[in-house]
Design brief:
Low-confidence stretches: none
Strand content: 15-25%
Oligomer: single chain
Bound molecules: pyridoxal-5'-phosphate
Strand order of the largest sheet: 4-10-9-8-7-5-6
Radius of gyration: 22 Å
Order of helices and strands: HHEEEHHHEHEHHEHEHEEEHHHEEHEEEH
Length: 453
């Protein structure tokens, strides 16, 4: 492709496409067009290679161009590209995927409602909880409890359950009955307490909120067992998730876990909640579920919940044309097989420990603060000085400078302000982690020099 054609593509991209959560700042700098992917690497329109440490927004967890998944899609394409999972119709890949999920999901989660995205999976979970109580004769249970630092999707339901103000502010007032509660971000505890001595005070406050709002008014608590990249993967304190489970049981609320970011091996277990042996009533999955091939999400619940719908003789009042797309199911099934056959959950645990050690080894840099995360989900907090751990001036945009430096030097890395986030594919090797840390180290040094920190 000649230079003129490339420039025209870039111009048309910017003139005719609104990117999701578009960044004017970045669009004005240098929009990017990707052409090819191989394993953990991507190639742009100029043929330049990038190591992707964020796995295409936490999706391509078995790498690009995974031969087993490529072949599964080709095979399915020969037979049937699509027939909807509508009213009373199924396809074989859809059934096989449901069967597979029944074996890999924690506890007795094994009844699936297939959708097209993570947002839709959460949206369905919220509707499912609401209708479950209605069928049980408790139609007054329509409130939803959510936590202040979590992201649960882009739809109005998901936005109403999202605690991060940036995602909400232009759309207020959001849905009624959504009650914001405390998160367990211990390093920056909202109550100013320390995890060693707090006695899980945040959950006591949550319980008071439930009582104050009406103990029989809540349908569900929606939460992410390990919150996502937006706030740097904070790990819940000991006993926290068990207490959350007990709290929901005490007040007859369903517990919804959003494992859209954390599911399918990234934490070093198949699902994050398995680190603490806590099983929700409903789990929303998406992103890495499909290996990034074809959009698919799922809301997975237990036979106990499903039986209430069956007994009432009412269908779950939800659905979409493409939910459970035939090709997407074939790809997802192959993706899960790759994870299992190649032992990628254990690989993520081992490579995650290696990545963590390497990130911690950067602590001699003046602007490197804490590292937090689990498995291959890791975040590095930039600070003004690593003794006092004071925050950097956000107006400097040091995190963005580092991201741009990495990009210019062949590495895709996500930053959320001054939190640098890494969540590479499960197939990443130690050599590739070394490559990433090498580029990051140069970027940190460049930032210190550029900002005279
Ligand atoms: C924790 C979490 N929940 C929900 C979503 C929404 O998923 P999707 O973007 O596929 O709609 C995301 C996406 O970033 C997420 O990280």
């Amino acid at each position: 492709m000649d230079e003129k054609e490339k420039q025209q593509l870039l111009k048309d991209a910017v003139d005719h496409i609104i990117p999701h959560f578009a960044s004017w700042e970045l669009l004005e700098k240098q929009p990017k067009i990707f052409m090819r992917g191989e394993g953990c690497y991507l190639y742009d329109i100029d043929g330049k290679r990038y190591l992707d440490t964020f796995a295409s927004l936490l999706t391509t967890i078995c790498g690009h161009h995974q031969p087993v998944v490529d072949q599964a899609i080709r095979d399915q394409l020969e037979k049937l590209e699509f027939f909807p999972n509508y009213v009373d119709t199924f396809t074989v890949p859809l059934i096989e995927l449901a069967r597979k999920l029944d074996t890999v999901m924690p506890g007795d989660l094994g009844v699936c409602f297939f959708v097209n995205s993570g947002s839709e999976a959460n949206e369905t979970a919220l509707k499912m909880a609401r209708q479950f109580h209605l069928e049980n004769g408790e139609s007054q249970r329509c409130k939803v409890l959510f936590r202040r630092h979590s992201y649960h999707g882009t739809t109005l339901g998901g936005s109403s359950a999202t605690g991060l103000p940036w995602f909400r502010e232009y759309f207020e007032p959001l849905l009624p009955g959504y009650v914001a509660s405390y998160s367990a971000r211990c390093a920056l505890c909202e109550l100013g307490l320390r995890p060693e001595s707090c006695d899980l005070a945040c959950l006591k406050m949550m319980e008071q909120q439930i009582q104050w709002e009406g103990a029989d008014k809540f349908s569900a608590l929606i939460m992410d067992p390990v919150p996502g990249s937006n706030i740097g993967f904070p790990i819940p304190p000991d006993g926290y998730l068990q207490e959350v489970r007990a709290l929901c049981d005490r007040y007859g609320m369903l517990l919804i876990f959003d494992e859209i970011q954390t599911g399918f091996g990234k934490t070093g277990r198949m699902f994050a909640c398995q680190h603490w042996n806590v099983v929700p009533d409903i789990m929303a999955i998406g992103k890495g579920f499909t290996g990034g091939y074809i959009p698919l999400g799922a809301t997975v619940t237990t036979p106990r919940i499903y039986k209430v719908f069956q007994k009432a003789g009412h269908e779950l009042r939800s659905g979409s044309t493409y939910g459970g797309h035939t090709l997407a199911c074939a790809a997802t099934l192959a993706n899960i097989r790759v994870i299992e056959d190649q032992g990628l959950v254990e690989a993520a645990r081992l490579r995650g420990a290696y990545l963590r050690k390497k990130l911690e080894s950067l602590s001699s840099h003046r602007i490197v603060g804490d590292v937090s995360g689990i498995g291959l989900l890791q975040a590095l907090f930039l600070v003004a000085d690593n003794k006092e751990k004071n925050p950097l001036d956000p107006n400097l945009k040091v995190g963005s400078f580092i991201r741009d430096y990495c990009y210019a030097n062949g590495m895709i890395m996500r930053n959320n302000g001054d939190i640098l986030v890494m969540a590479p594919a499960l197939i990443i090797t130690e050599e590739q982690i070394d490559e990433a840390i090498g580029i990051l180290e140069q970027a940190l040094a460049a930032a210190v020099k550029h900002f005279k920190l």
